[in-house]
Amino acid sequence: MGARAERRVVGYLPPDVPPPAALVSLGLQHVLTMFPATALVAIITGFDVAVTVFASGLATVIACVGSRRRIPLYYGGSFAYLAAIVAVVGASYGSHELAQVGVVATGILNIVVGWIIQKVGKENLDRVLPA
Predict the structure, then answer these.
(1) What is the spatial distance between Cα 76 and Cα 66, in angstroms, rounded to a whole number?
(2) Cβ-based neighbour number of residue 49 at 10 Å
(3) Which of 60, 107, 57, 99 shows the shortest CA–CA distance to 82?
(4) What's the pLDDT tens digit per position in 16-34?
(5) CA pair distance 89, 42, nearest whole angstrom
(6) Residue 65 to residues 34, 35, 51, 91, 103: CA-CA distances in angstroms?
(7) Computed over its alpha carbons, how large is the radius of gyration of the chain?
(8) Residue 37's closest CA among 73, 77, 72, 74?
(9) What's this model's pTM, rounded to 2 decimal places?
(10) Stronger pLDDT, 72 or 107, i.e. the higher one
(11) Who contacts 97 (Cβ-Cβ below 8 Å, separation ≥6)?
(12) Which CA distances in Å does 5 have to 9, 12, 116?
């Protein structure tokens, strides 16, 4: 019988701080993963890439500060909006303003729903919408 090997899990939780070399390599991996997707969404929808990257960075910083760095998420462009944006831009003869208002409005709606869930409590929500 062979010796039983120990499983080693490699990863970091939000309060952990990786060593400097790992921090740099993980940061580079994050940029190489997230930037192309965010830029591609902007290119496909016809939005300005610089504005999209700036807005995603600002949203990420606000979320990290708001959660006291407990939820380290990157808020980039979403492919979920592509069909709606293409339809709205097509119906408005190439104007992006209405599509941008829709994206901002859904963001505000998500914040409001989050506040409602926070006030009502997850337990009450689970009673109404069981898993």
Answers:
(1) 17
(2) 15
(3) 99
(4) 888 999 989 988 998 898 8
(5) 13
(6) 20, 21, 21, 38, 22
(7) 20
(8) 77
(9) 0.69
(10) 107
(11) none
(12) 13, 22, 47
CA–CA dist 96, 52 (Å, integer):
13
Distances (CA, A) of 17 to 6, 54, 57: 24, 26, 21
How many Cα atoms sit within 13 Å of 21 on the Cβ side? 0
Residue 96 CA to residue 73 CA, distance in Å, equals 27
* Structure-token pair, residue 112: 């409001």
CA distance 41 to 17: 31
Q: Which residue has the tokens 């380290």?
A: 72
